[in-house]
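Quick board copy: two proteins, each given as sequence then tokens.
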Amino acid sequence: MKKFISTPLVVCLAVVALAVGSSLATAQERGSRGPGMRGPGMPGRGPGIGGPGIVEAFDQIDKNADGKVSKDEASEWFWQRLARADADSDSALTRKELEAVRGPGQPGGPGRGMWPRPGRPMRGATDTASFERSTLPKTETEKKILGVLEDMYQNQGRRMMNVPPEDGRLLRLLTETVDAKHVVEIGTSNGYSAIWLCLALRTTGGKLTTHEINAGRASLARENFKRAGVDQIVTLVEGDAHEEVTKLKEPIDVLFLDADKEGYIDYLNKLLPLVRPGGLILAHNMSPRQADPRYVEAITTNPDLETIFLHMEGAGVGVTLKKR
């Protein structure tokens, strides 16, 4: 005689199985947070994230004048690398592993269960992954510049704290949209984001003033500007931007902040009067992990400004309009 299991019993067994599975996952996650932060797919003192461990990777990051890697540099490298690991062809870190690394409710991005499953976007969001395409060059000159950007991203980006390509495209799009004639950038690095800005400035007839405190990075940026053929529309200012920006007198159409996060509020206070009505202030690394609360407060409570935050699944970009 066949035996049948009642529906309520099946439901109970399913709930128990889910609870056990969740407990095991939590235990595994806690176990991965030991010394060295090593766990499945986690960086530590051995291989991880499709390349060198995080300790070895720090050797690739330019050090400060005192020979040490700053907290900002370490944090930015780590979270940006995790954010784009899923998309890197050379990375073994899957979206599921990235979820486990960040853990439930961890700052710096979605926690467990918040990433959209394949074919299932997050609530209130659209899964645009299938819509994305690489930038298509309209002219041979643009094709050459995009080739330089690709080379920089592949061969220089990971040790220069560059913005990801999608953020570079956003910079270009917004700059060209407002028909910018003068863009000011704080934090040149090797010139990667600056060249994205120059893609727009070539068509608007504008120019870029960019600031970099590190002489080595500034030298590399100049080489990259020449390679891309945009050096004639770029003025690179070496030195402490907190002091150098006080020398600026011309109106600013777009201000891009990508330097010391605790310095954003100072740059804003000094340069906001120069930003024209209808101009934009763009700030990189605006994730909850890295953004300075004072800056966030300043751009979200001033009635003269309107701010939205984009690309928050990655480094995060704050887009602020100075109202007319």
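And the next:
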Amino acid sequence: MFSALNPAELDIVLNAMSQVTRKAGEIIITQGEDGDNLYVVESGVLSCSKLFKGNSEPTFLKEYQPGEAFGELALLYNAPRAATITAKTDAELWALDRRTFNFIVKDSALKKHDKYD
């Protein structure tokens, strides 16, 4: 996702990120909410689950490990959160707000796409 950024843009993104700490069991994002941040996992393990229509219990989808990112779909498509992410262990995350994401990351990816088009 960040591969389309030039060094100056990447520096802006890194400086715009804020550190977030969550304890085991805390919910980071909730399915259906408006997306306000993209998150990158620095440490800890997070569980991703989704409540599908017709089910009464959420379905486990995946575990997020350090180095992985989530939350970008709500920012890319201005859509509600597609799943719930919960900390399985204490976790350190880096959050990137919607405004910075849209101005830097999304714009850069569109420019790269147009270039190859």
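Board note added afterward: The CA atoms of residues 34 and 80 lie 5 Å apart.
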